[in-house]
Amino acid sequence: MVKLNEQNREEYEKLILDTLRAEDREQFRETFLELHPTDQVDIFVKLEKDSRLRVYDYLTPEDFSHIFEGLEVQDQKNIYLELSEGYASEMFNNMFADDVADFLAEIKDEKAEDILLKMNKVEAQEVKELMSYAPETAGAIMTKEFVSISSTEGAANVIEKLRNDAPDAETIYYLYVVDELEKLVGVVSLRDLIIAPPDEVIENIMSTRVVSVQDDMDQEDVAKLIKKYDFLAAPVVSKQNHLVGIVTFDDVIDILEEEATEDLGEISAAKGATDVNVSAFTAARKRSPWIILLMFFGLITAEVIGQFEETLEAIVLLAAFIPLIMDSAGNTGTQSLAVAVRGLALGTIKKGTIGKMVRREFGTGLMLGLICMVVLAITVTLIHGHWILALIVGFSIFCTLSIATVIGATVPLIINKLKLDPAIASGPFITTVNDILGLLIYFSIATALLDFL
């Protein structure tokens, strides 16, 4: 198998395009199929429709199934429409059940049912089982292509069994041991199996301390467990401890990317609109609720400024520092928000460490505030020649940054305590709250010292 690098990628792409134009089936198959599946996908997505149609003719449904699995969902939808029914059905039969289930979950129900009817009954049944689980659970993301063995089998027999079953399994690095009722009782690594004497019984080499996940466990918790134990795969069991599937590390990578994208959308108040393929109308529809809510918060900010109208009329120069106070408060709070959300997502913030984290952020805010206060006091005094004004601005920044870090750190903790996703404590929300508090502090200090200005 050839893995392309930047030096030979263009060379292979040109060669493959030339074989397609020349309608050289054998040369195309020889060149294309020796590439890594990921490189096959990269080249395929660049092809024009007439070239793609020739690819379907030159590749068997089994060959093309590996390419289809590597495509993005939107690309899969478009490519599926170019395939004949017979070709598509055979392709789905050769795909892993979880990949078929993921695709069918993204298309219309009646179309999905039609695809299932045309598939092999055994393959279709496995896909239906996966689709029966609640979304974003271990059952919904697991694969049915795994190897299970009996504790009474000998090592030599199991190795022979692998020769037959391994080509259809998603991974064989772990072999799961089940009893006569298909309940999970142990696990054997491929390494332990290979070094065991040929006549050794599996029961004597298996580990009975199996870390498994329930089929209704949240996918993010599954990902955390696999990451924690550095597994290549984790067995999925029912409430009766029946082995029903496995979740592999490649699924975990997809989950972590999906969850990170979701959290990014929450923090930026753009949930569901971070995908560049989403239309402008859809993006606007998904973003507008937060924008409208924050707009009303902006009215509160305006009202705060209005309450100190007399102070502003007395010293107009105070208005020049409003953006500085607001921006500093929002930026500092967002930094603390990122620290808290990341800690909660990774599980590093626990019941006993919450106080420590909040105290650390408060200490950070104090030091940041002190540094900014000194810098601003010197700068404002030099520029405007007014040390009282410098004191007001500097002390306001000190108090604002100290409080902003605490708010940024505690709000997601409170939301998490309410069993909600802490990422919904979005950056714009924290920024707006800190803007309001920052202005209250600034104008309160300015009003108290107005007689000295």
From TrEMBL:
Localization of this protein? Cell membrane; Membrane
* A GO MF term: magnesium ion transmembrane transporter activity
Where are the annotated coiled coils located? Answer: none
Q: Which GO terms describe its cellular component?
A: plasma membrane
Q: Name one Pfam family in it.
A: CBS
Domain of life where this protein originates = Bacteria
Q: Which SMART domains match?
A: CBS, MgtE_N
Could you list this entry's UniProt keywords, alphabetically sorted.
CBS domain, Cell membrane, Magnesium, Membrane, Metal-binding, Transmembrane, Transmembrane helix, Transport
Principal location class: membrane
Please give, as recorded in its UniProt entry, the membrane topology of this protein. Answer: Multi-pass membrane protein
The CBS domain covers which part of the protein? 142-204, 206-264
| TM region(s), chain numbering | 290-308, 314-341, 362-383, 389-415, 427-450
Quaternary structure note: Homodimer.
**Similarity comment:** Belongs to the SLC41A transporter family.
UniProt function note: Acts as a magnesium transporter.
Report what the protein is called. Answer: Magnesium transporter MgtE
